[in-house]
What we know:
- The chain contains four helices and eight strands, in the order βββαβαβββαβα.
- By secondary structure, the chain is α/β, with parallel strands linked by helices.
- It has one domain: Ribosomal Protein S5, domain 2 (2-Layer Sandwich).
- The protein starts with a strand and ends in a 16-residue tail after the last helix.
Amino acid sequence: xxxxxxxxxxxxxxxxxxxxxxxxxxxxxxxxxxxxxxxxxxxxxxxxxxxxxxxxxxxxxxxxxxxxxxxxxxxxxxxxxxxxxxxxxxxxxxxxxxxxxxxxxxxxxxxxxxxxxxxxxxxxxxxxxxxxxxxxxxxxxxxxxxxxxxxxxxxxxxxxxxxxxxxxxxxxxxxxxxxxxxxxxxxxxxxxxxxx
Length: 196
């Protein structure tokens, strides 16, 4: 089996991003986005997905965090798409519940080549440790679009915004781990169409 790794570099007038992803990792990460809370969320995704990620991002944070967060989502989506190749022998679907104290989140996804995001998380406007929570939806939309992944995120309940976001990223990591796993029972791509 070929190594399921990808390198992505993205340079715009607003951001510079460089990352290396290994789908068959151990949950190791080296993440530096200059946004501490985002570093924390991405580390949860990688640790609980058992991927390996090296990521450096620089953006126009003097404007705001939006461009950096969105472009990291774009780059990570591209990396997953590239590392998966023709998507042969993968499980394709993944879902996970993740509790974080009083919060419970569910993420379900389909590595289908049909990007779509359903984000059913009531809006929290106040910043969490300096981070605007609404940027999580922007990150996930960019990730879904550029990874070719259908992603559904549902908050079942929760009060603490930090706990809610942690639960979302932990569930996303576990669901991605499940969906990207190689299953030797799967012959070719897991689709009746014969193509994803």
